[in-house]
Design the sequence.
């Protein structure tokens, strides 16, 4: 979180993270995700406007990442530039530019091609607080729609397509950058999203994991 490339105090840093990921991969299937705020934070990260962090994330081999509010701190053009350099999906279901989603809302992670039913549907969602937690010029023509509505809409679309194709998705991962700060409107909190997903009948019997960021808690 917040561009923590180097190890310090309770931050493991990217070098140790790489070790952990490699050790885990030797034991079996491993998924590596990021819930946002990766490209900005420390001077070592900011000096290249997140480009060095992207290089490290590519080298580790992330599977997907969602947008945090600090991804916007270097401006929309820089986000698009970094997106082109990423070797893994950058996703968010509720970030729109001029009425169209900035990036894809979701991705399917399939570690065992040819084996059906063990794929992971990964959906991203970003805090609407981004509109006021970065400089206004960084979010010109950018809108942040309701997190729960957008995530549920994407789930409905994915499940409808799966049904039409005769597929069944058993695993969902929601990469959320929402948090549980008391200053965040309840409707935008990650815990509220998790509760809403637990009540979504389309997810009955499926494994659903919400990986949330933003509040540093």
Sequence:
């Amino acid at each position: 979180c917040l561009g923590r490339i180097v190890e310090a105090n309770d931050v493991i840093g990217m070098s140790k993270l790489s070790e952990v990921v490699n050790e885990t991969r030797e034991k079996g299937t491993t998924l590596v995700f990021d819930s946002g705020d990766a490209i900005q934070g420390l001077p070592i990260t900011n000096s290249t406007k997140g480009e060095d962090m992207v290089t490290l994330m590519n080298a580790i081999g992330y599977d997907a990442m969602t947008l945090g509010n600090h991804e916007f701190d270097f401006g929309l053009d820089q986000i698009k530039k970094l997106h082109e350099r990423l070797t893994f999906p950058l996703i968010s279901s509720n970030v729109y530019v001029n009425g169209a989603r900035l990036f894809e809302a979701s991705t399917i992670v399939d570690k065992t091609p040819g084996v059906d039913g063990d794929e992971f549907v990964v959906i991203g969602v970003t805090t609407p607080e981004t509109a006021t937690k970065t400089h206004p010029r960084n979010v010109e023509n950018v809108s942040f729609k309701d997190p729960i509505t957008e995530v549920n809409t994407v789930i409905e679309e994915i499940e409808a397509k799966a049904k039409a194709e005769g597929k069944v998705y058993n695993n969902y991962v929601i990469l959320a950058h929402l948090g549980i700060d008391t200053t965040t409107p309840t409707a935008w909190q990650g815990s509220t999203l998790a509760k809403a997903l637990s009540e979504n009948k389309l997810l009955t019997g499926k494994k659903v994991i919400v990986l949330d960021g933003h509040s540093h808690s």
User: Anything to note?
Assistant: The chain has a mean pLDDT of 93. The helical segments are 13-27, 43-46, 51-60, 76-85, 147-165, 190-198. The longest helix spans residues 147-165.
